[in-house]
Amino acid sequence: MRRRGAAPYRGRPGGRRGRRDEMFMIPVNYGRGSDAYWVGELFRVLWRYRAELAPLYWLAGCFIAGAWLHAVHPNWWPVTTLAGIAGIATVAIRPARLVERFPLLARWRVRLWGGGFIGYVSAWLSCAAIYGATAGPMESFALLGAGVFAGPWLWREDRRRLTRVRIVRDKFPDTADAAGLTGAKMVSAIMDRWGWTARIKLRRGQTYTDVVKQLPELESALGARVGGTRAEPVMEDASQFTLRLVETDPHAAPVNWEPRPVSVTGKPHLSITQPVTVGLFEDGTPITVPLLRKHVLIGGATDSGKSGLLNVILGRIAECSDAVMWGIDLKKGMELAPWSSVLLRLATDNDSAERLLKAGVDELEKRAEFLMGRGRREWYPKSDAPALYIIIDEYAELSALGQRYADSIARRGRAVCVNLIIATQRPTQKTMGENSAIRSQMNIRFCLKVNERPDVDLILGAGKLSAGWDTTGFDGAGKFLVSGPGMDTPRRGRAFLITDADVTATARTYARTGSVADTAGAGTSESRSDGRSGGRETTGAPLGVSGPEMALWAALRDAPREGVTLAVLQAATGKGRPWIYRRLKAGQARRHRDQPRLRPVEGHHPPAGSRYVSVRRCPSCARISRAPAR
Ligand SMILES: Nc1ncnc2c1ncn2[C@@H]1O[C@H](COP(=O)(O)OP(=O)(O)OP(=O)(O)O)[C@@H](O)[C@H]1O
Question: Is 158-246 in CATH node 3.30.930.10?
Answer without folding.
Answer: no
